[in-house]
Write a structure and sequence with these properties.
The protein is flat and about 75 Å long. It folds into 3 domains: 158 residues, no CATH class; 98 residues, PH-domain like (Roll); 43 residues, no CATH class. By secondary structure, it is an alpha+beta fold. It is built from 7 helices and 16 strands. It has a 5-stranded antiparallel beta sheet with strand order 1-2-3-4-5, with no helix packed on it. Strands 9-10-11-12-13 form a 5-stranded antiparallel beta sheet, covered by helices on one side. Strands 6-7-8 form a 3-stranded antiparallel beta sheet, covered by helices on one side. Keywords: Membrane, Transmembrane, Transmembrane helix.
Length: 335
């Protein structure tokens, strides 16, 4: 009941990803129902008319009822019309996706926040996707491994069977002349990055610190730490923000190097194009809220025993990621 259940028929596969919601709904309804009953009894004992509290009781029970109904949500992969349909509460169809629009079925999440399995669409390959499984603590969880081993191959086979189009592969040698995400400086291509936010934050903290120093704020504080945090700390924080404005990620075609330049070139890290292994698309969450997607490169330097991952760009609009990867491939492969 806690994890995804599924039924495999001749022409369709039915998934029930929200089974845990039923138990949660029952528990919430019982707890809220007990509280509502106690409240009504108290009202009667004091001789008050409980009629006006009925809407309140209904409102109190509603979340548990919605949770229970949500546990009946089902996802149907229908081979007849080659569509995936999602039925909210088990009867309200609120999503329909053609098989031809599905790019992949992959895991979503991280080891720290848990994960689930989702389908990702061709139009937004690196977006949030559509959840088709329950949540699992991590990818090595027994139930997640069963889902991945037993069900995903069947779904992928049915989706690909009779496909009217195929997934366009990213051309690793595609020549691009107009770059959207890079600024050309001779043989070097610099990743474009917005510096507005760090510049504004740097100026705010720096102004705050300078003002505090000029007016003597914290001078009369009993604790030296208070004076430091009121004066010098904002100055240091402001300088850190301003210094990050001069960080660059550079692809040097002449030297065939990836250069991470920090603080205007004071500190650098360099990797060779030949160290590149693959791209890592990392979806970030902050307090369980989606906060953007990083495009990282996994590299294997010849002088190190293990690979390293570097972030080369962050996106809030995941539809732009494919174009960014195409431009990066063009720079690395075109001599």
């Amino acid at each position: 009941m806690r994890y995804t259940k599924w039924e495999i028929n001749n022409n369709e596969v039915i998934l029930h990803p929200n089974g845990a919601f039923k138990l949660m709904g029952i528990m919430a309804t019982l707890i809220c129902g007990a509280f509502a009953a106690f409240f009504l009894i108290q009202m009667q004992q004091y001789g008050k008319d409980p009629g006006f509290t009925i809407p309140f009781v209904i409102l109190l029970l509603l979340p548990g009822i919605i949770l229970f109904l949500g546990g009946n949500t089902r996802i149907v992969f229908d081979d007849g019309d080659r569509t995936m349909k999602r039925y909210l509460f088990g009867f309200l169809k609120n999503k329909t996706v053609n098989y031809d629009d599905i790019a992949a079925i992959e895991s979503y999440g991280s080891h720290s926040t848990g994960m689930n399995y989702r389908i990702f669409l061709r139009e937004n390959r690196h977006g949030r996707g559509i959840r088709i499984s329950s949540g699992y603590a991590h990818s090595a969880h027994a139930a997640a491994m069963v889902f991945r081993r037993e069900l995903i191959p069947i779904l992928e086979q049915r989706i690909k069977a009779g496909a009217s189009r195929t997934e366009p592969a990213i051309d690793m040698h595609k020549s691009i002349t107009g770059f959207t995400f890079y600024r050309n400086e001779g043989s070097r291509y610099v990743v474009k990055a917005s510096r507005i936010f760090p510049a504004i934050m740097g100026l705010i903290f720096l102004s705050w610190g300078v003002y505090a120093l000029a007016t003597g704020a914290g001078r009369h504080s009993a604790k030296a730490s208070d004076a430091f945090f009121l004066t010098y700390f904002p100055v240091l924080l402001g300088l850190v923000f301003l210094v990050t404005c001069f960080n660059k990620t550079i692809f040097d075609k002449a030297e065939r190097k990836i250069i991470l330049s920090y603080a205007g070139g004071i500190y650098k890290k360099e990797y060779f194009f030949g160290d590149f292994i693959r791209y890592l698309i990392v979806r970030k969450t902050t307090n369980l809220i989606y906060s953007g997607t990083d495009v990282r490169m996994e590299l294997q330097p010849v002088d190190k025993n293990k690979s390293v991952a570097i972030t080369i760009h962050s996106f809030s609009n995941t539809r732009k990621i494919e174009r960014f990867i195409e431009e990066t491939n063009s720079i690395m492969d075109k001599i």
